[in-house]
Design brief:
Blueprint (H helix, E strand, L loop, with lengths): L2 H11 L3 H10 L10 H13 L7 H21 L1
Length: about 80
């Protein structure tokens, strides 16, 4: 359910247009990706183990992607 629309109407009705911008800034957009089943199982095992602090498969993949992007950008610069 898209609550941002409901909040927008509530804010306009109550004459708080500045709240609309902050609510929009907090809403993140997500996309789905596909992982090979074997790789997903390995990630799930790491998440299940909890020794590294990951709470979900998505959290792990997000951090892994961010880390790899940082490394690739550094290689491109140097």
């Amino acid at each position: 359910m898209d609550y941002s629309l409901s909040i927008q109407y509530l804010c306009v009705f109550q004459n708080y247009p500045y709240i609309i911008q902050s609510v929009r800034a907090m809403v993140k957009a997500y996309v789905n990706i596909k992982l090979p089943e074997e790789l997903a199982r390995e990630v799930d095992e790491l998440v299940k183990d909890r020794t590294l602090g990951y709470r979900s498969r998505g959290e792990f993949v997000t951090e892994a992607t961010r880390t790899l992007l940082i490394k690739i950008k550094a290689l491109k610069k140097g």
